[in-house]
Amino acid sequence: MTHSILPLTLDGAIARVRGKTLVGPVDLQIGETGLTIVMGPNGSGKTTLLRLMHGLQRVSGGRVEWAVPDGMARGRQSYVFQSPIMMRRKVVDNIAYPLILHGVPRRQARSTAAEWAARFGLGDALDRPAPYLSGGEKQKLALARALIRQPEILFLDEPCANLDGRAIREIETILQQAQADGTRIVMATHDMGQARRLATDVVFMYGGKVHETAPAPDFFKQPTTAEARAFINGDIVE
Amino acid sequence: MTHSILPLTLDGAIARVRGKTLVGPVDLQIGETGLTIVMGPNGSGKTTLLRLMHGLQRVSGGRVEWAVPDGMARGRQSYVFQSPIMMRRKVVDNIAYPLILHGVPRRQARSTAAEWAARFGLGDALDRPAPYLSGGEKQKLALARALIRQPEILFLDEPCANLDGRAIREIETILQQAQADGTRIVMATHDMGQARRLATDVVFMYGGKVHETAPAPDFFKQPTTAEARAFINGDIVE
Amino acid sequence: TTSFQNSGLSDVLLPQIKKDIGLDVQLIVVGTGQALKLGEAGDVDAILVHSRKAEEAFLKAGFGTHRREIMYNDFILIGPSSDPAQISEADTAVTALQKIAAAKAPFVSRGDDSGTHKKELSLWQAAGLDPATFGSWYRAAGAGMGATLNVASGMDAYVMADRASWLNFGNKGDLKLMFAGDPVLFNQYAFIPVNPQRHPHVKTALVAQLEDWLTGETAARLINGYKINGETLFTFNATKP
Amino acid sequence: MNDIAQGTIDAFRLIFTLDPDLLEVVGLSLRVTVTAVLIASLIGLPLGAWLVINRFRFRRQTIAVLNALMGLPPVVVGLFVYMMLSRSGPFGVFGLLFTPTAMIIAQVIIITPLIASISHQTIRDLWAEYHDLLISLNTSRWQRITALLWDGRRALLTAMLAGFGRAIGEVGAIMIVGGNIDHSTRVLTTSIALETGKGNFAFAMGLGFVLITLAVTINLLMHSLSRTERASVW
Amino acid sequence: MNDIAQGTIDAFRLIFTLDPDLLEVVGLSLRVTVTAVLIASLIGLPLGAWLVINRFRFRRQTIAVLNALMGLPPVVVGLFVYMMLSRSGPFGVFGLLFTPTAMIIAQVIIITPLIASISHQTIRDLWAEYHDLLISLNTSRWQRITALLWDGRRALLTAMLAGFGRAIGEVGAIMIVGGNIDHSTRVLTTSIALETGKGNFAFAMGLGFVLITLAVTINLLMHSLSRTERASVW
Ligand SMILES: Nc1ncnc2c1ncn2[C@@H]1O[C@H](COP(=O)(O)OP(=O)(O)OP(=O)(O)O)[C@@H](O)[C@H]1O
Ligand SMILES: Nc1ncnc2c1ncn2[C@@H]1O[C@H](COP(=O)(O)OP(=O)(O)OP(=O)(O)O)[C@@H](O)[C@H]1O
Ligand SMILES: [Mg+2]
Ligand SMILES: [Mg+2]
Description:
The complex is a heteropentamer, with 2 copies of chain A, 1 copy of chain C and 2 copies of chain D. By secondary structure, chain A is an alpha/beta fold. Chain A has helices at residues 46-54, 70-74, 91-101, 106-119, 135-147, 165-180, 192-198, 216-221, 226-232, and strands at 8-17, 20-30, 35-39, 61-65, 77-80, 153-157, 184-188, 201-206, 209-215. The radius of gyration of chain A is 18 Å and the shape is globular. In chain C, 40% of the residues lie in helices and 20% in strands. Chain C has helices at 2-6, 9-21, 32-41, 52-60, 93-103, 115-126, 145-155, 163-168, 204-214, 217-225; strands at 46-49, 68-80, 107-109, 138-140, 158-162, 175-179, 186-193, 227-228, 231-232, 235-236. Chain C starts with a helix and ends in a 5-residue tail after the last strand. Chain D is mainly α. Chain D has a single domain, classed as MetI-like (MetI-like fold). The longest helix of chain D is centred in the middle third of the chain and has 37 residues, at 100-136. Chains in contact: A-B, A-E, B-D, C-D, C-E, D-E. The B-D interface holds B 54-56, 74-75, 77-79, 81, 85, 87-89, 97-98, 101, 129, 131-132, 149 and D 129-130, 132-133, 135-139, 143, 147, 151, 231, 233-234. One adenosine-5'-triphosphate sits between chains B (17, 20, 22, 40, 42-48, 82) and A (125, 128, 132-137, 162). One adenosine-5'-triphosphate (ATP) sits between chains B (17, 20, 22, 40, 42-48, 82) and A (125, 128, 132-137, 162).
């Protein structure tokens, strides 16, 4: 492999929309290995932070920098959105699309896509129009489509929100496998159990700021801030 | 109150789309009180079943009948969709919309809507365009919009999927309150904890059919079918 | 008829009419065929056209009260300055057309059943030729005078036009007046009031006033005196009743 | 080409010196077109929405016919309106022929199918988004139509502007039912046609530029009023 | 009104007896219009998409101008093309004036802005849906445009049909650059204008009905080919 795109460095990064600061300033580094879980109450800025890192949200202040030039870093990331975006095509064509973008011949892309679909339990749905899938199936599709690119870093925004217990376990296995294979993962979730199972380190967002960062075991055992403590207990965070 | 619209009776009800049976035949009765939780793996037909009951999915076979004529029953139900539908308006106008449909003057509808928004933690977001809300905030909006109509029966399709711990607890409180005030609730969820906390009875969907129905305590303690048992344990349901 | 306006004469007459008899004449400019139709339907109070046969049919069917000749102008033959058919040396209109046919030089016809078109057809007939048998050098444009002149200018073709339209035409290109003066090319304009017995809403009194004016002294002076580039366009020939 | 420059200069000189004749023509063009667009929108927008939310037997055919009516040749419309309004036609008694009203009627007929078709297309996407919610809220037909039209208003602007464009540039029908009568029914397009017939291309082109300038101004105005481009979603 | 019935009957009799003159006219109408629509779509659809996905300084103004160009008066376009193609114009050497090619050029100029505007509007909604995904997948401009055009193809049909409608019914420009020359550049609309000028209103209306029938047929054909109405989302 060529030079890694990591670490990713955020230095006073700010996301501002029409004069309103949604997130920041954020100082943060995403190192070369690990699985970072982003937690925090609704509207605290998790999604915005992930988008900022991925380059979907314009940086209004400060810097967001990869270890390689931006142009090189762009193609080596994947992102799974909080509400999955389905192209108005068949399931198999949705999953194959990133490959086709990379110039893989259509037939080959389709058959690879079929394999990935099967891994995510969508083997039966290949020829169905993607917009008609059930909520959970859409999430699975989005995951398959993100992983088929074999990215160096994978951003996941609550990817298991609509999944059943078994699917969650299976996908966690896939993610852990990917992590073992060298994929860096940054994931937002509200599922405390999932966070405990997967996280190597935690970023706790609160009011649009990074309120606390810590290795996972420390965070869950002994959060330093009162807000994180309250959040872990499901208490009212004020 | 006039004659209750309940019970709701499904008698061999089938949902079929372009020749493919999605759900059914289903025989089921939703009685006058209680909180029914619909569970089941992804793609098992929970959403389709709820839509069938609510009248959003055409009944292709069998019957779906309320205790009163259909026309009367229509206006007395609410539904929260799995992926919240935001009208391209401000938050307050989204929540006020059902009231305005019922002829409530605009000013009054707005102020009532503001109260409900506050109850759901959207007090700060009133004037924001709804499509820009965060995932969890959208779900809260959808819940407020459904409850503001004070329906006799409330269908909820995984309403807490993107919510943080505190919001889930608050909304569960609101739902229990509504239930105590006489609102019948039918809710699909993957959150086993939530199901245990809220359910009075459970409908377990599997492969497009109602596989098992039982009062909640029985279901969680001793499911009769192997599939339900596996599901509860998060095992592979085959 | 279009030539009345294209020539610019209407811009001279109308203000004077307004001044003299206080009448606001609303001019609707359409081809002769359409003008006759408007008269039949009673949508206008009077028409000014130039196609004798059609006019007589119109009167015979009872749509108009009478026909009053006002003035005439003349048709001319126009062609590219190189004059490939040498028609400028012809002595009658008929020989000029025969020369064009013999040379198979491009010729654009109105082809729209207008007064001008009918005149052209009658000339071909007089020349013993039938346009239906002509090859692709004979182009029926199916359009008004202006549009036909535009086509002729674009194709460097011969074309027959009324003098007024030609003098006022701004897109002459390589075209020049090639032949004129043969008396068969005279073009009589007539005024026909619409019959009030058929269309009671017609403003007969005003129309009569207008007719009087058009056949009167002032009109004669203005029509005969109207010149473009020093050329007289119309000759007043209304007779006192 | 110098001709054209000259014609344009002439035309704009007329505008800037506020030549009363030209102003009258421009004013009438605007009056007729704006009125026609408003009327056609009042019919076309709800019709487009209505076709979206209703499923009936010949829906597909109806939409195809509506689309086809976008191709109504103006001359035919002009003729039709002429025959209706002519003294010997059914509405002859109103004496509307060769008045601006007749021109408005013709333009409404021409642009209503266009506005309805485009708005139908626009609203379809919005309906796909709103369908479940509006059905669930037990809305009446009319409530659905108003919600769709209101929330889609910025996108519907394109439909109205397309109608405006078609109407302001239209000449065939206007000529037949209006008659291009000086100081009464002469508008920009009929003036252009008249000058073209006289072979005064330069002046005709100049008037054309005036017309386009007018259209651009109005479009910019509408866009900035509606701030279509400010928000990315609405 | 009996006149009209008679004219229609006459016109359809000509069609059904396969009158060679009428068939020639109909054939040319179709050939010219379909070619023009195809060319205009090749330009207009990507242009519409391009305007959606690119943010640049005068984007809003550009779109307003594009919308305004929908109002290009056909007569002005006709004049412009005439002057370009005339012997003394820059492209005079090709001798294209008064040929079907000239008519196609004029129609392309007229309908391209229409197709681009409507497709721009249509694609905007789809882009709002796809934006994040396509950006995230690091697509090139061209890949974005093709994805949007492909997935929006059924909706884009309306844009093309609007263009077809405008082109098939257009007469002003066609008349100037084509000349309505019998057996060479005469199409349905110019025939209608001709018959109107002759006062043959009935026959003109009859031809109008033929034209509309043609348009309806083509619309139905396109709709059933694309099965626009079968699926509710696409
Ligand atoms: N385009 C926008 N304009 C205005 N406000 C916005 C916009 N996008 C997001 N916001 C606001 O910024 C805040 C942070 O949003 P974000 O989506 O990052 O939250 P989140 O942490 O992902 O929440 P959730 O857990 O609910 O998904 C929210 O309050 C949201 O309403
Ligand atoms: N319109 C449709 N056309 C074809 N198949 C459909 C359609 N709608 C739903 N389905 C299929 O029907 C099955 C049941 O869908 P449904 O949305 O009811 O599942 P669900 O139990 O709600 O799943 P989840 O937990 O993922 O939300 C799924 O496999 C889905 O792909
Ligand atoms: Mg989020
Ligand atoms: Mg579901």
